[in-house]
């Protein structure tokens, strides 16, 4: 029976994609926990608003407002009662130094930011990473529709920081195995991607093939 030989690059790419998928799942789980926490906070805020509304209905201010509405409907029957309520409120002594508490202001609406795309560039040398970052920068000049984050295991990435692309470094497999053989490199990659998904709210992940980096035309698709 003939055996099928799978190229090493294809196996490594499959492992990277599996790690990226695991990182995405961890990010979604963390987001689910955060959504549940927000839902509980909203529920508590709803309960507080209900209590505040109940207190308002029992306050004299609410009764005065209700009296004004009643006055419009029945001036003869409502006027004496409303007059007494106004006199009580005017004659009540005001606490020394008391100032009216301003109501809560409307929070400013944050400007919409472009979505984040995560580019995983693993196993590429310094020249290859540089060429890819420059191509990616050209793509953003043509269509700045997202914010790129590039994950690379190339230690010579520092000179590329001034290209308008956020770069995140991850030690390469050989370096990691040499210093931390007790922990698989794939787990480190998955956890790092999970953190980047969460920190940047990533909407898309692109695994860059080191043997055939995408051209400008391909990035624009």
Entry keywords:
elongated, 10% strand, alpha/beta, four-stranded parallel beta sheet, 221 residues, single chain
Description:
Keywords: Coiled coil. Residues 11-59 form a coiled coil. The chain has 221 residues and is of the alpha/beta class. The model has no long low-confidence stretch (mean pLDDT 75). It is elongated, with a radius of gyration of 31 Å. The protein is built from seven helices and four strands. The protein is 57% helix and 10% strand. It has a four-stranded parallel sheet, sandwiched between helices. It has helices spanning 8-57, 60-73, 75-91, 126-142, 173-179, 185-200, 216-219; strands at 116-121, 147-152, 166-169, 202-207.
Low-confidence stretches: none
Strand content: 5-15%
Number of strands: 4
Helix content: 55-70%
Number of helices: 7
Structural class: alpha/beta
Most strands sheet: 4 strands, parallel
End-to-end C-alpha gap: 42 Å
Global mean pLDDT: 75
Give the topology string: H per helix, E per strand: HHHEHEEHHEH
* Largest sheet strand order: 3-2-1-4
Whole-angstrom Rg:
31 Å
Shape: elongated
Coiled coil: 11-59
Keywords: Coiled coil
């Amino acid at each position: 029976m003939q055996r099928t030989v799978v190229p090493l690059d294809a196996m490594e790419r499959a492992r990277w994609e599996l790690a990226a998928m695991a990182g995405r799942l961890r990010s979604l789980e963390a987001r689910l926990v955060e959504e549940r926490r927000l839902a509980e906070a909203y529920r508590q805020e709803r309960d507080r608003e209900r209590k505040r509304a109940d207190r308002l209905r029992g306050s004299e201010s609410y009764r005065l407002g209700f009296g004004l509405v009643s006055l419009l409907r029945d001036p003869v029957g409502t006027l004496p009662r409303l007059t007494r309520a106004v006199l009580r409120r005017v004659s009540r002594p005001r606490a020394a130094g008391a100032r009216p508490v301003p109501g809560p202001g409307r929070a400013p609406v944050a400007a919409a930011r472009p979505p984040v795309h995560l580019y995983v560039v693993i196993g590429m040398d310094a020249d290859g990473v540089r060429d890819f970052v420059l191509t990616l920068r050209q793509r953003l000049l043509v269509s700045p529709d997202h914010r790129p984050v590039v994950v690379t295991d190339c230690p010579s990435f520092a000179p590329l920081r001034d290209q308008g692309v956020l770069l995140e470094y991850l030690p390469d497999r050989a370096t990691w195995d040499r210093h931390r053989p007790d922990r698989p490199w794939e787990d480190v990659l998955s956890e790092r991607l999970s953190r980047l998904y969460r920190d940047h709210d990533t909407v898309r992940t692109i695994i860059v093939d080191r043997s055939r980096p995408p051209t400008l035309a391909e990035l624009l698709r």
